[in-house]
């Protein structure tokens, strides 16, 4: 989660300019805009690996020394300047490099021993020196020192033989003979003004028999007019600021991610609750409608298994816990090491604070998205359907009892007084939403969200065994006024002939329907318009019968109903737990045409996922039962009104298992409606 943070530029420009290597407002009359020497020292100070530190050390030590005998800020060949504060930084960086990389200790000592410190000393004090050609000017040391005098003390320049003084091993044991070692010590101590390895004294101190306090700067005060007293450069290495920013970002990110995750989870639960409640209200309306109808009929269907409610605790528990945000171990070690050697704690803390602020904002955003996505993506539809089913159950249970009571009251009111024998007046037939008329693919199941007594939710067009080919897609369940229909466009694969069509169905009573359809072959100049019709009874429940009379046409204008080409169909929808459990619908049927041979067939349909189906049917004719024909189809179909369908159908007749994909196949795109 922190990959974007690790790759981004860490320190804002304002922070770099405010805490960087230059401070123009404090610059004296000598000051350059930036310090090239401090840039070199920053590279060495920020080195992480030994080879990286070696390269920076060689770049510093192998460059030609200035006319001052030390690395300095140079402007041209004969112009150089060095501040005592810069020397303090340089000696402290060299000391830390030797401590961090012991394998480079010898290289560090040889480099320091090659420098001449005499130019920056004046009567036991360090001074600022500038060389312009042959002219050399000096000033009292400008302060305060960014390294706080630690570098000078560690190498023995600030106190007489301090206990933690770094003594180069080369001066203690050079491996040379006595005479050669004496000459080496003389050159480094006497001619380059380096503290004596055993006494810690400097050459000018050995010539004076005077006591020395802990700070020699207090023994004599230099006072030159026209000199700047404030050190002109700032020392805030970028690696220290980066370490502070990274540590702050990780700290803020952890807290922000935790807070954002809680907000995201709370928002996800709220959205799921709104979805659940809205769908439950829809289910309540439909459940009450059908419960009232079936209560008046005296019927009570078996409801589906408990769909479960919205268990907020279970939803939260099912979410994968987010990984602990933070910085990788190796990176954290380098940050801790940098924190330990950070000199400017104020700048480090400022970078830490800014990193923590930005890290918290980034963590809150990512935590919020994690809390939202993991919950909604997996649960939204599931929770909505659970709410709908629960609403259907609750509404049906409430309305069924009311419908039953209404029916009993109606029977009592219609019962004649004695002595006439009572007459039986059955309750009015219920009006559950009809399903599609047979149309060679009539339903074996009703949409679960339309009828509360669901045994299985249909995920594809309903089916029925029939040899006749329907004119268009299946119509959806009728609306409150008993009407439904569809519009469609189909293409025959054999010749590419297109057809526009429409179907309309009216359900005057439960499971009874009247249907009419019209087709327009708009590329046919002669018989472009035709129509079809149907009437009958069709109960969608498995284990029920259907009786229908259909004329699938084409009937041309002026031919009337053309009953001589109609087909009477009897069908039965198979019922078995194995079928329902595997989303399979099956039926058998007999087609009896007014003219022609009878046909016996069966159709099987499998729904691998909601709204998708695969269908196949087998049939035999009366005159030649040995020859078997088949039809098939597949596609997407949603039983709800105002939805789209896309199907491939091959109604044949095809000899058994001969595909004839192009010869008898057609692709159809349709849209349904209800009123």
Secondary-structure map:
Blueprint: H1 3-7, H2 13-19, H3 36-45, H4 50-61, E1 73-74, E2 79-82, H5 84-100, H6 105-113, E3 121-122, E4 125-126, E5 128-132, E6 135-139, H7 150-154, H8 169-172, H9 178-191, H10 203-206, H11 238-297, H12 312-318, H13 329-340, H14 345-414, E7 483-492, E8 498-509, E9 512-520, E10 529-538, E11 545-555, E12 567-573, H15 577-581, E13 584-593, E14 599-609, E15 612-621, E16 628-636, E17 644-655, E18 665-674
Helix pairs in contact: 3-4, 3-5, 5-6, 11-13, 11-14
Describe the structure.
This protein starts with a helix and ends with a strand. The protein is elongated and about 140 Å long. The protein folds into 3 domains: 215 residues, no CATH class; 176 residues, no CATH class; 192 residues, Beta Barrel (Porin). The strands form 3 sheets. It has a 12-stranded antiparallel β-barrel with strand order 7-8-9-10-11-12-13-14-15-16-17-18. It has a 4-stranded antiparallel sheet with strand order 1-2-5-6. It has 15 helices and 18 strands. 36% of the residues lie in helices and 21% in strands. By secondary structure, it is an alpha+beta fold. A hairpin with a 7-residue loop joins strand 16 and strand 17.
